[in-house]
Amino acid sequence: MRKDGLGSINDLIHAKARLGIMSMVMTYEYCDFTMLKEKLRLTDGNLGAHIQKLEEAQYIITKKTFLGRKPKTYVSVTEEGREAYREYIATLEAVLYGEIFHEGEGDK
Amino acid sequence: MRKDGLGSINDLIHAKARLGIMSMVMTYEYCDFTMLKEKLRLTDGNLGAHIQKLEEAQYIITKKTFLGRKPKTYVSVTEEGREAYREYIATLEAVLYGEIFHEGEGDK
């Protein structure tokens, strides 16, 4: 875990809505847009903007398809996203339990 | 844990700088301003503003004193702050591990 304290918390994932999206795509193999919207209680615009940010970081990929004549967007996590999420959890837990503040104290 | 999904994540604590302050006052009985500033790598103004928000919420208390002729500000957690931090961790872990999304699925 990088030793720059709070700076090592991944802001891309830490923002609540994006944390919710990442947690869901780690929980469910495929999440469709409507399911994300309902579970996370976000608006279309808000959810779309957060999905775009995570896509640009290559943490998730989206697939657009049709169910009958109804358009469907599916979101799933990439290997990079899985790795970033695991590192985020490890860093967060080090902060939550204060471990991150003891680092480097020994080697002064 | 309140069942309003992401909404139950305490924004007051979730913001990175304030998360760092709360984690430190939970780790160390007394934190002085300089120690917080160094460990969290925040500016005086930034740290002061975040301390004020946590004080207004009665999660922390500050004590101003002098060490010789040098002014010193000490920050410590209140019982309310301790409780809020514990609830924040429980909620965050439910989100991190996706448990929060399975709630209420059974009782539809």
Automatic annotation (TrEMBL), chains A, B:
Specify the protein name: Winged helix DNA-binding domain-containing protein
* Chain ranges of the Winged helix DNA-binding domain: 18-95
What Gene3D superfamilies does UniProt report for this protein, alphabetically?
Answer: Winged helix-like DNA-binding domain superfamily/Winged helix DNA-binding domain
Q: Tell me the keywords, alphabetical order.
A: DNA-binding
What is this organism's lineage? Bacteria, Bacillati, Bacillota, Bacilli, Bacillales
- List the PANTHER family: BSL7504 PROTEIN (PTHR37318)
The source's domain of life comes to Bacteria
Cited SUPFAM superfamilies: Winged helix' DNA-binding domain
